[in-house]
Amino acid sequence: MLIQVLGTGCAKCKTLHDIVTKAVKETGVDAQVEKVQDIQKIMEFEILMTPGLVIDGQVKAAGRVPNVEEVKKMIVAAA
Question: How far apart are CA 70 and CA 4, in angstroms?
């Protein structure tokens, strides 16, 4: 599983990355967490606001920071 956190380094982007990392550890799912900071790559996902959360190529959240429980549900559903 590839989980991408889209953002250019803002505080919300860092928070989302930390939440995703924690959620991956807590679920035990084998996943790679990747930061995407290149604005061109972010634009390819057609989101209007960062941070964004993408799991296996599908946008799961944009413009907000979901909590750990919500991210865990997204990860388990995608597994």
Answer: 16
Tens place of pLDDT per residue across the chain (79 aa):
999 999 988 999 999 999 999 999 999 999 999 999 999 999 999 998 999 999 999 999 999 999 999 999 999 999 8
Of 61, 49, 57, which is closest to residue 16 (Cα–Cα)?
Answer: 61
Q: Give start and end residues of each alpha helix (H) in the chain.
A: 11-27, 39-44, 68-78
Query: Active-site residue 3, yes or no?
Result: no
Q: Which candidate in 5, 13, 20, 74 is catalytic? A: 13
44 part of the active site: no
Question: 2-78, what's its fold?
Answer: Glutaredoxin (3.40.30)
Q: Look at the block and give the residue holding tokens 């597994």.
A: 79
Q: Which of 1, 2, 10, 11 is catalytic?
A: 10
Report yes or no on whether pTM surpasses 0.90.
yes
